[in-house]
Amino acid sequence: MSAFAEFALKDAVAVITVGLSVAVAITSIVGALKAGVLKKVRFGGLEFEAPSEEMRRFKEAYEHSQKQPEKEVPFEIEQLASYYS
């Protein structure tokens, strides 16, 4: 195996390792923000803040309203809609 191929293999392994490490770190931070363990995370000029309790309640109410079944359309209205369309 040439020196270049050996260097390329080591470089590829290093890049894959760094990529996995970054992915795990980001996943951990996002999970901590969602769980409420962290409130704010700051990286230099970037600042990430966990959603407030009010925003969480609004989101839950919105998701609940989307899951409710739609009201049935009366037969007469359905027939009129199909007649005029």
Q: Choose one word for the global shape.
A: elongated
What is the CA-CA span between the terminal residues? 74 Å
Largest sheet, strands/sense/barrel: 2 strands, antiparallel
The proportion of strand residues reads 5-15%
How are the strands of the biggest sheet laid out side by side?
1-2
Unreliable runs: none
Structure notes:
The chain is mostly helical and 85 residues long. The protein has one domain. The protein is 68% helix and 9% strand. It has a two-stranded antiparallel ribbon with strand order 1-2. Strand 1 and strand 2 form a beta hairpin. The mean pLDDT is 84.
Describe the secondary structure blueprint for this structure.
Blueprint: H1 3-35, E1 40-43, E2 46-49, H2 53-67, H3 75-84
Antiparallel strand pairs: 1-2
